[in-house]
Amino acid sequence: MTATPAPHPARFLVIPSLLCIGLLWMGALTPALATTHPGQAELVREVAHETGKSPQSLNALLDGAKMQQSILDAISRPAEAKPWKDYRPIFLTDQRVDNGVAFYREHRALLEQIGKQYGVAPQYIVAIVGVETSYGRNTGKYKVLDALVTLGLYYPPRAKFFREQLKELLSMPGNHLAGPIDTLTGSYAGAQGWGQFMPTSIRDFAVDADHDGHIDLQNSLPDIFASVANYFVQHGWVSGGPVAARAQPDGAAQQVAVKDATPQWPLEQFEAWGYAPLQPLSPAEPTSLQTLEGPNGPEYWFTFQNFYVITRYNRSPLYAMAVDQLAQAIAAGVGQAEAAR
């Protein structure tokens, strides 16, 4: 064995310095390599801390999710941006009405049982699943995890809302979902099931109506119907209350600035401003007014508490009007079918 020369003082100082720099560089690089999506590490820390779930399993789920440009494109052109004259024909088609009548009649016993239990007219439950998913025929093709990762981590205009939905999805117990998180499909916004519930809505309003210990908004009709009805009730649905009614302005009607669908004035106040109802209504009924662009010019509608409740499902007044008119068409069709028997 030959003797090892003593290290040069300068070399002795330089080598550890280079080693430290290398270690620091590798340490700085490691988090970037371990994170597939921006903000993933912080999100995983939060969910793991609050639920006790394994960071490794959470990272594995998120690592498997993909940012989808088609989702960012879709959210930039919602149907609710259309005027009423173009929006209404999307949902008020003969086929959708006929399918709704058939759907109601097929599931009548269950719908009317749940409608009675919650105080929600069954045709409104049917209209929601009709507008949302064509009575369960189209519940969405996007992976829910992809949608919420894309919108929660890559879409700054609404990142706060969608990150909350993503966090809730990752936190949710397995018996609140139709299957494993990475297998769920839904809309481009991450809504699931026949009623298109977001994760926080599943948490707050979904119901295990068939009492099997599992909330399934994809395969259990009792859970689907009861969850829609419960959503309405928890947002203030008035059993038997009006939804919307056509208004006729006179030549001197005042323009009314309406912020949203919240009923703000009694109907008699609108009458004093020059708007007459075209059907009998209580003068004291709390009311709002919607002005929509119809095919023949402006349409004026009195809207009530139940209309406001539908806008809690989707905040567009066009959506609420489509649900109301589809519900009425379905109820009329069911009545006609029963009368013809």
Automatic annotation (TrEMBL):
Residues 42-328 form the Transglycosylase SLT domain. It comes from the Bacteria. InterPro entries: Lysozyme-like_dom_sf, Lytic_transglycosylase_MltB, MltB-like, SLT_2. SUPFAM superfamilies: Lysozyme-like (SSF53955). GO terms for molecular function: lyase activity. Coiled coil: none annotated. Transmembrane segments: none annotated. This is Membrane-bound lytic murein transglycosylase B. It comes from Rhodanobacter soli. The lineage of its organism: Bacteria, Pseudomonadati, Pseudomonadota, Gammaproteobacteria, Lysobacterales.
